[in-house]
Write a structure and sequence with these properties.
The complex is a heterotrimer of chains A (285), B (402) and C (316). With 285 residues, chain A is an all-alpha fold. Chain A has eleven helices and two strands; from the N terminus they run H-H-H-H-E-E-H-H-H-H-H-H-H. A two-stranded antiparallel sheet of chain A has the order 1-2. Chain C is mostly helical and 316 residues long. In chain C, helix 2 runs antiparallel to helix 10, helix 3 packs across helix 10 and helix 11 packs parallel to helix 14. The chains are: A mainly alpha (285), B alpha/beta (402), C mainly alpha (316). The interface between B and C is large, with 49 and 63 residues.
Chain lengths: 285, 402, 316
């Protein structure tokens, strides 16, 4: 039984890692909370559904298109809605919340609340320690690892990535050193949205696609950032796995109904007892 | 500055409140008979309420209406929310002045609007709710609640017939161990309790899953390790979909029966990418010779709307409107007390079977009344496989179970 | 001081006039449906204005206000059959205040947006708990409540509670405490440096808003004669934020007007009721983008154009 929890917890940990990394990027660099983050993930999933089911596209090109579209979407979101009110965190929060609800309602009207599914890329599966795991889930695991590696490479090896990290460390100093801060913000927004889109692409084949699917990842990502602290790649990954295992253990030991409550409890308990998170610097100043 | 702002806005607020142009108040005596139809029309069960009622009203009107008057349906959205439901029903009662109200599939909304409708002495014919509390009110306080009727089965009735089918299935396929996978909701309580009582030790696992579950890995692992050979799934929410997909993906070695609402939808095969092969569920309203009207209705429905009747609300609403029209004809007028008497005397053969109301104003269930029919997904089709008298095909186990 | 006191007294006169107008409305509007909608509008006005004291004045946007009036409503569901009405109101207020303390503990260490996301999860936890402990809460069916008041009685009760809520909130907002709230909202670091115990003030605003919302929640459940877990849904809380922002935050009266405006708008747009949520969120986005001060601020601009003369307060 605990093998099951370990295996499924690991798969969820990988997905949560991607979600949380995207979230912490905007959080850490642009220093805003983007409540439309989950909506980007939702839009990407529906996009894949439409491309595959209605236009008959193959899965992989559909994934790529969805990731590109969500990147563009993130940039537009930033330029049109966030940039004009950057200085007021409260207004950014409310406008992104408004956008999230608006997009959710658009999805309801276009697709209805009937859940949708995105076709599996790799059908079939294999048995690991008596637990049958699908190839799709294994693919998700590897894809998530690849995404982390790519993100790491971008942050460490490219100029854009270095700028981004400089801004994350100290915006004023970076600005004084002549680093184009706005460009770093845009990069962060684009990368973050790409990750949200990629996460949508990864989970859509084994999760239900429905209009309200964006809220849970948003809250999970926030919890992971609270727990793992800002600005630490490893902190985020460890926190993502802790949350994933905690959810599955709660479902197993207490009640599946309280799975979300486990996440929320981690969020609140961390804020009360360890406001700086496990590693790195926390969100509480 | 502030003074002017406040005066203006207070004036606007007041003007809005006084002059709110909420439609004209209708006075109906001789025009059409107005029937309010309530439901969450953005969801499949709501869509089916809307479409089935539309079709029934068109047919009734084409045949000359009722008492020489046409039926006019007034659709009002309830958003699955008791607050919205209450406002919607009050608008139907006091603005549109409808003569009766039918529809709704959520018990909590029906429970919230039931007293409002009863106090205004109008007929409320619920066509999709499962809570026995609604009809219990009829037993407890007949004078107040007698205007309530129901053309769908309540969960006590479901329990009785689901056990019969599960028993039959276990005997036929020589299975001994049952797992119950039921969502965490009150409406399933009587069903779970009845299974525990009737099947006793044969029930080896009871898993209560979250209504908003997106992943049932842990729950399915528990079922698999319990050694269950039959799963009775009782899932009304979206969780039915990931359940089916993961059951097939992980090749859980247990036959599935019970009541999975998602599996009644015409889109289920596509949604599961064929993983529904061998998946069985109770479905209220199937394309089978339940009555001479059933198959013609099904085909006419597909022709009109381009898809098969989906949710359980479909047959219940279609029959409900006919039962109501039939009662109005027999009563000869729209007086609610006369209508109650006429409805209580109902003996009507509709598409879902023979409808006769019990003492508590639920329909009688069973072979000679509204039969309890099971479908199995087989090669993209919903095949009626149980009861034997009505089956249109044989049960075929999923490919990984012999 | 005199220049500022004058519009304030006019503001109070305006509120009294509006409430009197609403109190006289049943003379013309006797249709039970209209009365019911107006009752609902008054209740939402209570929720939105009580939300404003923390969210508008201190600028800490609370995304979980539903936890408070939901607590009041569930307290009614549990206790109404057993204790007198007056005690039910007391219990509803207490339950909401207790939740405010519970939420305040982790939340008030956080700044602005982080507080918002954390407050968002509290009603969601309560929603899950309501589903889980269904023996007591009635699960998805919720609890049925017998109302001690008639339709018209409920209407007047909601108006009286609205009047009391506005009176308390305006009194606080226009006092020294209100000025401190604003100072914290403008710059809490500076306020702290000036020796203000910001946490205590924030917690005070939290508890005050919650208590009033809890009382509103009791009345809400009497109006609905029902309480269920959908009270804790995401959109229930968002709706209050939308009403507050659309009405104009930091004004107490603005959110109340926003509540009346959106409730009546939602009911009058019958032909397009499917688009209600779309319209609500669209109006919210437009408001934040174009009229960050909401209807109240818009009213001020219109007022300025109409009077065409600088009024004493405009110089601020």
């Amino acid at each position: 039984m605990f093998i099951d929890i370990f295996i499924f917890g690991t798969i969820w940990g990988a997905i949560y890692t991607i979600l949380a990394l995207g979230f912490t990027l905007i959080f850490g660099v642009v220093r805003i909370l983007n409540l439309a983050y989950g909506a980007i993930y939702m839009v990407a999933s529906y996009l894949i559904y439409s491309l595959v089911s209605s236009l008959g596209l193959a899965a992989v090109p559909a994934w790529c298109l969805a990731v590109i579209a969500s990147t563009l979407f993130g940039v537009v979101l930033y330029v049109v809605f966030v940039y004009p009110m950057r200085d007021s965190l409260g207004r950014v929060l409310i406008v992104t919340a408004g956008i999230a609800i608006f997009l959710q309602e658009v999805a309801v009207l276009v697709y209805s609340t009937e859940p949708r599914y995105v076709p599996t890329v790799l059908p079939g599966g294999l048995v690991i320690f008596d637990v049958r795991v699908t190839y799709q889930q294994i693919l998700t695991l590897f894809a998530a690892a690849a995404l982390v590696a790519i993100l790491h490479a971008i942050l460490v090896r490219t100029r854009l990535g270095r700028e981004l990290r400089a801004v994350a460390q100290d915006t004023e100093m970076a600005s004084l050193m002549g680093i184009p801060v706005e460009r770093a913000y845009l990069t962060a927004m684009a990368l973050s949205s790409a990750l949200a889109g990629a996460a949508g692409a990864l989970v859509a084949p084994f999760l239900t696609v429905n209009p309200e699917m964006g809220w849970s990842p948003l809250l999970v990502a926030f919890t992971i950032v609270v727990l793992g602290g800002l600005g630490s790649l490893w902190g985020t990954i460890v926190a993502a796995f802790i949350v994933a295992y905690a959810e599955n253990l709660t479902a197993f030991l207490i009640s599946p109904q309280l799975r979300d409550v486990a996440t929320f409890a981690i969020m609140i308990l961390t804020l009360v007892f360890r406001p700086h998170g496990l590693f790195g610097k926390g969100i509480v100043e | 500055m502030k003074r002017i702002a406040s005066t203006i806005w207070l004036a606007v607020g007041l003007a809005l409140a006084v002059a709110a142009p909420w439609g004209s108040v209708a006075v109906a005596q001789s025009g059409p008979i107005k029937i309010g139809v309530i439901g969450p029309f953005k969801l499949t069960p709501g869509r089916d309420i809307q479409e089935a009622a539309t079709l029934a009203a068109e047919e009734i009107n084409a045949a000359g209406g009722v008492l020489g008057r046409k039926l006019e349906l007034v659709f009002t959205e309830t958003e699955q929310n008791p607050e919205k439901g209450k406002t919607a029903v009050e608008r139907l009662l006091f603005v549109d002045k409808v003569d009766a109200i039918i529809g709704e599939h959520r018990s909590e909304v029906a429970l919230a609007v039931q007293p409002v409708i009863m106090e205004n002495k109008k007929i409320f014919l619920a066509t999709g709710t499962a809570s026995p509390l609604l009809s219990e009110n009829v037993l407890k306080d007949y004078n107040k609640y007698k205007y309530y009727f129901h053309t769908f089965l309540n969960s006590n009735q479901m329990a009785e017939h689901m056990i019969k089918q599960a028993d039959d299935m276990m005997a036929t396929y020589k299975k001994k161990k049952v797992a119950i996978v039921a969502e965490t909701a009150v409406w399933v309580e009587p069903i779970v309790a009845a299974f525990k009582k009737e099947l006793g030790d044969k029930v080896v696992a009871i898993e209560r899953v979250s209504t908003n579950a997106r992943d049932l890995s842990v729950e399915l692992s528990k079922v698999a390790s319990s050694g269950a050979e039959v799963i009775v799934a009782i899932l009304a929410a979206d969780a039915g979909l990931p359940f089916t997909r993961q059951w097939a993906d992980r090749q859980i070695p247990a036959l599935v029966t019970g009541y999975t609402v998602m599996a009644q939808s015409d889109r289920f095969w596509e949604q599961t990418e064929g993983r529904a092969q061998g998946f069985m569920t109770w479905k209220h309203g199937v394309r089978a010779p339940i009555s001479p009207k059933t198959i013609p209705y099904w085909d006419a429905y597909v022709k009109k709307f381009g898809h098969a009747p989906g949710a359980y609300t479909n047959f219940a609403t279609y029959d409900g409107l006919y039962v109501l029209a039939d009662a109005i004809k027999r009563a000869g007028n729209l007086d609610s007390d006369n209508l109650v008497k006429a409805l209580e005397a109902t003996d009507y053969v509709g598409v879902s079977g023979r409808i006769k109301f019990s003492k508590r104003h639920d329909p009688e269930a069973g072979a000679e009344f509204v039969p309890f029919t099971y479908i199995e997904w087989n090669k993209g089709e919903m095949v009626t496989v149980w009861p034997p008298a009505m089956k249109t095909g044989d049960f075929v186990p999923p490919p990984w179970i012999k | 001081m005199i220049a500022r006191a004058l519009p304030r007294s006019m503001k109070y006169a305006g509120v009294v006039a509006a409430l009197l107008g609403l109190a006289l409305l049943p003379l013309w509007v006797s249709n039970p449906y209209f009365l019911s909608v107006l009752t609902l509008a008054a209740l939402y006005a209570i929720f939105a204005s009580s939300w404003d004291i923390l969210s508008g004045y201190i600028g800490q946007f609370n995304f979980g206000h539903a936890a408070f009036f939901g607590a009041g409503a569930y307290a009614t569901g549990f206790l109404a059959p057993h204790i007198p009405v007056a005690l039910v109101f007391a219990a509803g207020a207490l339950a909401a205040a207790a939740f405010a303390l519970l939420m305040g503990l982790p939340c008030l260490k956080l700044r602005g947006p982080y507080l918002s996301l954390t407050t968002l999860v509290f009603p969601l936890i309560l929603e899950r708990l309501a589903f889980t402990f269904r023996d007591i809460t009635g699960g998805e069916y919720g609890l049925t409540i017998a109302s001690p008041l008639s339709r018209i009685g409920l209407y007047y009760a909601s108006l009286v509670l609205l009047a009391a809520t506005l009176a308390v909130l305006l009194a606080v907002a226009d006092s020294r405490i209100g000025r401190t709230f604003r100072a914290i909202g403008d710059d809490d670091q500076a306020a702290m440096a000036a020796g203000i115990n910001t946490t205590r003030y924030k917690l005070g605003a939290f508890v005050l808003g919650a208590t009033l919302a809890g009382l509103g929640g009791v009345l809400y459940s009497y109006h609905l004669r029902h309480v269920g877990p959908e009270m804790f849904g995401l959109f229930t809380s968002f709706q209050i934020v939308i009403m507050g922002v659309v009405g104009g935050t930091g004004t107490i009266l603005g959110p109340a007007i926003g509540a009346y405006f959106l409730t009546l708008l939602g009911e009058s747009l019958r032909e397009i009721e499917t688009f209600r949520i779309l319209i609500y969120s669209g109006v919210l986005i437009l408001c934040v983008m174009l009229f960050p001060r909401g209807l109240w601020g818009l009213g001020a601009i219109v007022g300025k154009l109409v009077s065409r003369a600088p009024s004493p307060g405009a110089a601020r």
